Q: What sequence folds into this?
């Protein structure tokens, strides 16, 4: 995927300005940066949820806006920050929505298998028949992630996927994301605020600030004291575990 001179404004104010970025396949890629840096806006333009003002997004060799909606949904899935699903549906019914591009609601055996697999990944099998309004915030987030996994696309976009998750489920999700890339050749692009998760599980980190792309590199290149202090305006202590940088901010 290639982004060329990508820009977006609201009410005359640019929130993303001239982003140029090449995103390789089969990698875990994290977008980091302060609030309002443009991370989620870029992710939403990549998914076509937000319309770009200018620039190009080339996806699998074709301009993104030229993709058929259903075909795009077979290649790219997104979990957004805001998912206000009000219907009285169960976890399994929600996860089954991920198969809609393939079966239009009439699940076949293969679709059922993908749904069960996603439920297993997110440890939801034992509560699959619970209704969404009976769930905690963390359980609901896991159900939404399972729906995204069930879609079984080459590209998975996740906007703050660890929202509402406790330490156990956050860590397990990040290991799953790493596994999706390494074992199933998925490309995962996600917005993260947890710098240590970005450092430990990403191949590439893209740093945004005030709507601009500041720097792109591997975790060792990005997790640097002076650079992060300038981006976040707070002080950091950088240490290493298993050769990977660890951030503690003060």
A:
């Amino acid at each position: 995927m290639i982004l060329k001179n990508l820009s977006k404004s609201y009410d005359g104010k640019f929130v993303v300005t001239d982003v140029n970025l090449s995103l390789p396949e089969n990698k875990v890629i994290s977008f980091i940066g302060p609030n309002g840096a443009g991370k989620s806006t870029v992710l939403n333009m990549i998914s076509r949820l937000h319309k770009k003002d200018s620039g190009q997004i080339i996806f699998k060799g074709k301009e993104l806006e030229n993709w058929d909606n259903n075909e795009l949904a077979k290649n790219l899935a997104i979990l957004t920050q805001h998912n206000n699903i009000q219907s009285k549906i169960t976890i399994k019914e929600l996860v089954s929505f991920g198969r809609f591009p393939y079966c239009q609601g009439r699940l076949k055996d293969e679709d059922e298998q993908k749904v069960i697999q996603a439920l297993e990944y997110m440890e939801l099998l034992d509560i699959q028949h619970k209704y969404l309004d009976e769930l905690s915030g963390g359980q609901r987030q896991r159900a939404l992630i399972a729906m995204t996994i069930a879609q079984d696309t080459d590209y998975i976009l996740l906007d703050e996927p660890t929202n509402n998750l406790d330490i156990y489920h956050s860590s397990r999700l990040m290991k799953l994301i790493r596994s999706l890339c390494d074992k199933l050749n998925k490309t995962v692009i996600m917005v993260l605020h947890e710098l240590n998760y970005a450092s430990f599980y990403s191949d590439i980190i893209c740093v945004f600030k005030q709507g601009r792309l500041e720097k792109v590199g591997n975790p060792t290149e990005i997790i640097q004291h002076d650079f992060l202090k300038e981006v976040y305006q707070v002080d950091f202590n950088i240490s290493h575990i298993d050769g990977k940088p660890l951030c503690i901010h003060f």
